[in-house]
């Protein structure tokens, strides 16, 4: 309760500073929280954009599809390289080098290849979410205690049992953290892709509102995206907490 009280107090202080500061500046560019709430009501009430549910649904679908592809591909490739040490030694530095490249440089090529539709946003979200997952799998496999494997084998554990009962619990914390980071970056990739070039989605609405200097709606859309991200991250945090209890 004390932590929650501190968080609430900090949030109230920030909102108060935002309100006082914004009122002293250009209202066309700086919007106080008191102006954001009516704009949020207009958006959720479908007054600003009657087609808002379609834009929201499109962005959520793009995020889910991109994350599903990132997880399935990242897990598959990660376990393939991690369970074969020689392959991992060859390809892990390449993956780490590609991950270090600023991701935004890939988007023009993706947009040219996939167009302005949802495919390029899914591809960009997949690209950002894939690397944390595959690298987390590789790191998790490396940190498995070899003595546990030796003891399990000496007790007659078969490869499948060894993987399910020893390897997965030992690497679960690192794996879940990678999945959580991949989810966050997938959301970033999809939203950034929509902002940079799109015909629909929340990122498109943000770019549209910003271009027309509809600043209250612009900030309200950012708040909606923040709520979406917090909901997804909260779900990921719950899964992470459950996995930590399972591996303990």
Architecture overview:
The protein is mainly α and 248 residues long. The protein has ten helices and no strands. Helix 2 packs across helix 10, helix 3 packs parallel to helix 6 and helix 3 runs antiparallel to helix 8. The longest helix has 38 residues. The protein starts with a helix and ends with a helix. 30% of the residues are buried. The mean pLDDT is 83.
What keywords describe this structure?
248 residues, mainly alpha, MetI-like fold, 82% helix, globular
Total helix count? Answer: 10
| CATH secondary-structure class | Mainly Alpha
Q: Classify the fold: give the CATH topology.
A: MetI-like fold
* Number of separate strands: 0
> How far is the N terminus from the C terminus?
26 Å
Number of domains in the coordinates? 1
Q: Which percent range describes the beta-strand content?
A: under 5%
Residue stretches low in confidence (pLDDT < 50, at least 5 long) are none
Report the CATH superfamily: MetI-like
H and E string: HHHHHHHHHH
Summarize the helices and strands and which ones pair or pack.
Blueprint: H1 2-23, H2 33-44, H3 52-82, H4 85-100, H5 107-114, H6 118-142, H7 146-154, H8 159-196, H9 202-211, H10 215-247
Produce a short descriptive summary.
This protein is mainly alpha-helical and 248 residues long.
